[in-house]
Amino acid sequence: MASEDPQDVRKYLQQSHDRIFENNKKWAEEQKKKHPEFFEKLSAGQAPEYLWIGCSDSRIPAEAITGLGAGEMFIHRNIANLVCATDLNVMSVINYAVRHLHVKHIIVCGHYGCGGVKAAMTPKDLGLLNPWLRNIRDVYRLHDDELSAITDSAKRYDRLVELNVVEQAKNIIKTAAVQQLYKEKGYPIVHGWVFGFNDGRLKDLEIDFEGQLKDIQRIYDLTSDALEGS
C-alpha cells in the first residue's frame, strides 16, 4: 500500500476481504457450469491419492503446479516443509492420511529460494523461530562435509534445500503409520521433490524409498503393533 492513511487502510482491508468472496462466488458458479455434479461429488467425501507436505510460501499452489483438482491431494504446509516428531500437527496429518485416507504417495516438496532454509544458514538469533530452524541447522550439521565443500554460496544454499527435503522424507519413513501400512499394502511411497521458481518445474530427488526404509528399520523398526509381552 502506497498510503498509510487510516481511512485508506480500512478501505483497502475491506476491498481485499471482499475480493476473496467475489472470487469464490465466481469460482463456484464456473465449477457448477462446467461440472454440474462437482459439489455433489465433493460432499460425498474424499479419497486423495497424494499427501503433500510443502512449504507455507504463498508462491507454490500445490494443486495448480501438479495439475490436480479438489479432492485429489491432502495438503499440509509449514515453514520449510519440516516433519518433526514432536510436531503433533504434521504427525496427525500423516497418521490420518495414511491410516484413514490410505494415500498412495507422500510427497515432501521444498523449493529453491526457501526463506526458512536461508534463515537457518544465517548466524543470528531469530527469537521464536530458533527452535524450528534448529531442525534445518541439524540437517546442515549432518551433511556438513558435503555442504562445506561447496564454495559457491548459492549452490550450497540450493543443496541444503534438497538435503532438507531428503531428511524430512526420512522422518516420514520413520513413522509407524507408514511402515505398518507399507508392510501390509505395499504403499504409501515417500518422495522428495523441489520446486524451482525460475522455470516452474518440479525436480524429483529420486529417493530410494525401499532402500531408505530398509536402512531406517535397522534402528526405527515400528512394524509391530506393540512391544512383545506388553
From TrEMBL:
Pfam families xref list: Pro_CA
CDD domains for the chain: beta_CA_cladeA
Enzyme class at the top of the EC tree: lyase
Keyword 4Fe-4S: no
GO cellular component: cytoplasm
Cofactor(s) listed: Zn(2+)
GO MF annotation terms: carbonate dehydratase activity; zinc ion binding
Keyword Cell inner membrane set for record: no
Cofactor note: Binds 1 zinc ion per subunit.
Catalytic activity as recorded in UniProt: hydrogencarbonate + H(+) = CO2 + H2O
Keywords, ordered alphabetically: Lyase, Metal-binding, Zinc
Domain of life, per lineage: Eukaryota
Gene Ontology biological process terms in this record: carbon utilization; cellular response to carbon dioxide; cellular response to oxidative stress
Binding-site residues for Zn(2+), renumbered to this chain: 55, 57, 111, 114
EC number per UniProt: 4.2.1.1
Listed PANTHER family: CARBONIC ANHYDRASE
Entry's family note: Belongs to the beta-class carbonic anhydrase family.
Functional description taken from the UniProt entry: Reversible hydration of carbon dioxide.
Protein name stated in the entry: Carbonic anhydrase
